[in-house]
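User: My advisor asked me to double-check a structure prediction for YdcF family protein before group meeting. I don't want to rely on an old file, so could you generate it fresh from this sequence?
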Amino acid sequence: MGIPKFPDVPPLNSAQVQALTEITFMRHLAKRTLPQYDLLFVFGSSHPEIWATAARAYHQGIVKRIMITGGYKANAIRHAGWTYGTTPEAQVIRDKLVEWGVPLHLMDWEDQSTNSLENVLFGLRKINVNGLSSLLFVSKSFAVGRQYRTLKKYLPDEMVIEAYPSLTTINKLPVTAWGWSQVAAHRAVVYGEYLRIVAYGKRGHILPLAKEIPGL
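Assistant: Sure, here is a fresh prediction for YdcF family protein from the sequence you gave:
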């Protein structure tokens, strides 16, 4: 049985809130250490903020190529603004980036994946990993911790992996590292991310946590 996107959240104390923030947002990964990265890896999503963030990274000149991931999953919860029917997410993101001035020849994509693990596994098959020394990835800000651990599991240890988070809205409010615990839906989605990190780490799908949060 899968983990709900918005699970019930137990009462959280301040130490647990701080630990959840550190594990799920991993804000230090957004402090970029390189002027340019070999690849921008875009995790599939129906949220417009994702492709807007990817376009921003390209136009800032900080990435050389772009790998876009994401298929179509019939029972997925999509952004309210999604109007693209059963079109795979990667195709929508690709076409949006072309509209916003990103050259098609700089992009690769896979359009069969239905979750983050498949995003990584299917996406990495499309590129020469041995030719990369650095990777910047686009994901929802509150999913950075899980996406980083997924990439880290399947990429060489010496590769630089850093984040270019997308500030994602839920119920018309952005989910932020400093305010998520004050909004019920945001508490649920962040707690759900933590549960996935724990569960997927134990399954061997992602880099596991060194230590779980006491009481959770």
